[in-house]
Amino acid sequence: MNANKKYELIGRIVEQKEIAHKLNRDIGELKEAIVSFLNSKFLSSIWGETTQNYKNKNILLNETLQKIKEYEDELETLKNTEE
Q: What angle do CA 29, 30, 31 make, to 5 degrees?
């Protein structure tokens, strides 16, 4: 039973790390867009949408990193109970 839980947690961690990687990439692209907007004339509607998207991605990234930490802690607890 613990082995199944262990592999389930490892799978969740991998999945969340993939999401975190994608969010980091998206955030990087949004940073580039924001800098580009700052270096040129821009429409305020696009600026607002882009900066809000940036904020939302950061929130998602923080939530994803928190999930990873929780899963890793649970996995560590599970490993300690097996010993």
A: 90
Q: Are 76 and 9 in contact (CB under 8 A)?
A: no
Amino acid 68: pLDDT:
94
Residues 22-32 pLDDT 10s: 999 999 999 88
* Whole-number Å distance between alpha carbons of 6 and 12: 10
Question: Do 61 and 23 contact (CB within 8 A), yes or no?
Answer: yes
How many whole angstroms separate alpha carbon 48 and alpha carbon 62? 21
Burial class (CB in 10 A: 0-12, 13-18, 19+), 71: buried
Does the structure show a pLDDT above 90 at 56?
A: yes
* d(C-alpha 15, C-alpha 23), whole Å: 12
**Does the structure show a pLDDT above 90 at 35?**
no
